[in-house]
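Input.
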Amino acid sequence: MHSRLILVAFLVASVPLTACRREQPPPPPPPAEETTEETTQPQQPDDDNDAAAERARAIAEARSILEERVHFPFDESTITPETEQLLLQKVEVLQASPNVQLRIEGHCDERGSVEYNLALGNRRAEAVRQFLMDYGISGDRLQTVSHGKERPLAPESNETAWAQNRRAEFIVTAGGDQINPPS
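Output.
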């Protein structure tokens, strides 16, 4: 009987311990990821944005072509084969952009008198203008001016600087917001 009593006492003593002991609940599941359209649908390029970006890039390139300088040999206003290639690119942009107008500015190096260089700068600008007109660009869209030797690009007095200064520059004077890339 004594063993029964011990058993009962043991059971009675252990009941409160087991009653207080609670099993830990399982950990909560990880939070559900928010479902968005991006995660539920495969990524697709935005064709409108891509097309707009491509168009903007093409317009910027066309503007760059229009504004690119051309250079001349010493004491000449003739169009070289290299200059011809650059001018033909300008023709394509101008044909695609009928409202664009340009000012062609003739420049010279520092050698020679002010009067001589103003005349040479004018011959250079006019040679470029005539070339563009020969390819169908209306003369009404092309204005010329000579700066002679008064606006050097490179101020040094050496052949490298002089070669940079013998140039024609192009300024878009109208229709800059209507530049179109060639087709």
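Residues 72-178 form a domain with the 60s Ribosomal Protein L30; Chain: A; fold (CATH 3.30.1330.60).
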